Amino acid sequence: AGVELANGRVSAGIGTLGGALECTHRCALSPNPDSAEVERAVASVTRELSKWARRAGVSVRQVSVALPGFGSFGDINPIIPTSIDTLRSVVAEQFDGVPIAFTNSVQAQAAQHGFGVQAKSRDQKHLFLFVGHGIGAACIGDMTHGAEHRTVEIGHMIMDRAGPLCRCGHRGCLEAYAGLPAVATAFDLPEERLLA
Q: From CA 117, how far away is CA 159, in angstroms rounded?
């Protein structure tokens, strides 16, 4: 099972070892959720996954949770206001005894890029770049030999200390100039139009 915390939503799903999704659930978040809202949303999607798994007779072997910025700021996440320990407890309520792993959202996206159903074999080092609300990257080694991929927080590199306010609380981050909200504003378009 997988749970992804992102801007405006918590998504979750259960898939086969071959990568096919069997069940998905999504819960919307407000633009600036507090920890209680995030925890309720995670509880809601994991409860739905757990119910589906019981009805379908599916045994969940692991739950992976992806968060933006995970690991870059220690246990504090300026984007998703909750702690890893709290999230682990919320997920464990529905998947008792199942191992729970946490990763950075960009790392999860890079893994999907390299190993997912639509992936093409990568046999050389390259940079995976993700641009959404945030901007992240992963330096990916030779996947054919099981190399790890390392995330790079390029979205929070400060371009101009007097620049626009970023959602992380700093001013002038690359994300404040080139993330989805900034691009949508520059083109006077709703963010949804840029994603279509």
A: 37
Q: Does residue 174 contact residue 157 with C-beta atoms inside 8 Å?
A: yes
Please tell me the distance from the alpha carbon of residue 13 to that of residue 24, in angstroms, as a whole number: 4
State the alpha helices, DSSP H only, in the chain.
Answer: 35-56, 84-94, 105-115, 174-178, 180-186, 191-195
Phi, psi dihedrals of residue 166, rounded to the nearest 5° = -95, 155
* The amino acid at 103: T
Question: Mean pLDDT in each 10-residue stretch from start to end of the chain (196 residues)?
Answer: 88 84 91 90 96 94 87 63 89 95 81 67 70 79 58 85 90 92 89 73
pTM here is: 0.77
- The DSSP call for residue 49 is H
What is the DSSP secondary structure assignment for residue 59, as one 8-state letter?
-
Which letter does DSSP use for residue 68 in this model?
T
Evaluate whether 194 touches 105 at the Cβ level (below 8 Å). Answer: no
Q: Tell me how far apart the alpha carbons of residues 132 and 138 are, in angstroms, rounded to a whole number.
A: 14
Using one digit for the tens of pLDDT, what is the confidence trace for 65-121? Answer: 988 877 665 565 666 778 889 999 999 999 999 999 988 887 777 777 766 666 665
Question: Cα dihedral angle (86, 91, 97, 102), rounded to 10 degrees?
Answer: -70
Question: Phi/psi zone of residue 188: left (φ > 0), alpha (ψ -120 to 50 degrees), beta?
Answer: left
